[in-house]
Design brief:
single chain; alpha/beta; 7-stranded mixed sheet; 7 helices; 29% helix; 17% strand; globular; disordered N terminus; disordered C terminus
């Protein structure tokens, strides 16, 4: 799977090696032809919000960015302050809302967000394919947040301008190894690992930390 991140870009190869921060990853993106990042969570916790953190970092760096949430959960909507009941991919697929109405703005940043309202759609569905194609034309970078339990759907999201990022906390290195092992068993060996900056506990957000 070709990923055009430069050879000198920060990368986190094997278990036990250093993990990049969102800032380092943004620097690498500036020097590459990568236009899409598929985000997988290494721990099911903070890693599930890795796409939000990275999207904010990309937007702060002056690049246009959109986050497509295919996790089927509510974490990303809650973190970005998008109102419950806002239209998403389901409404778009059912012709209940045009593309422009399912694109929301992160309440704490300039990154745009598309939600998978209701059940998470299949990444290879015609509607997701159409949205991804439109976003590739309109944004510098598209982030696709995907449930790590749906790795079998990865091939439909990958091309020569796509990279896979495994996000999580430094305190849970085994999570990186587990997800990486599963990906490599599928023949995916070119991975980037990202350490999330903040820790959230008991539903309360910790103060922002520089990434």
């Amino acid at each position: 799977m070709p990923h055009d991140i430069p050879a000198d870009a920060p990368a986190a190869p094997r278990h036990g090696d250093e993990v990049v921060t969102s800032r380092e990853l943004v620097m690498a993106l500036h020097r590459s032809a990568i236009g899409r990042l598929v985000m997988l969570s290494a721990d099911g916790g903070e890693g599930g919000l890795g796409g939000v953190e990275l999207g904010r970092a990309i937007a702060r760096a002056g690049m246009s960015c959109i986050l497509i949430d295919l996790t089927g959960e509510e974490r990303i909507a809650a973190e970005t302050g998008i109102a419950p009941g806002s239209p998403g991919l389901h409404e778009f697929a059912e012709n209940l809302a045009p593309l422009g109405e399912i694109i929301h703005r992160d309440s704490r940043g300039a990154c745009h967000v598309v939600l998978a309202t209701g059940a998470a759609p299949q990444p290879d569905s015609p509607d997701v394919t159409l949205v991804l194609a439109a976003c590739a034309e309109a944004y510098d970078c598209t982030i696709v947040a995907l449930d790590a339990r749906r790795m079998d759907s990865l091939p439909s999201l990958l091309d020569e301008e796509t990279a896979i990022v495994v996000a999580g906390q430094a305190a849970t290195p085994d999570g990186y190894a587990t997800v990486a092992g599963e990906l490599r068993s599928l023949g995916v060996d070119d991975l980037i690992f990202m350490q999330c900056a903040a820790t959230r506990r008991a539903g309360r957000r910790a103060p922002d930390q520089p990434d």
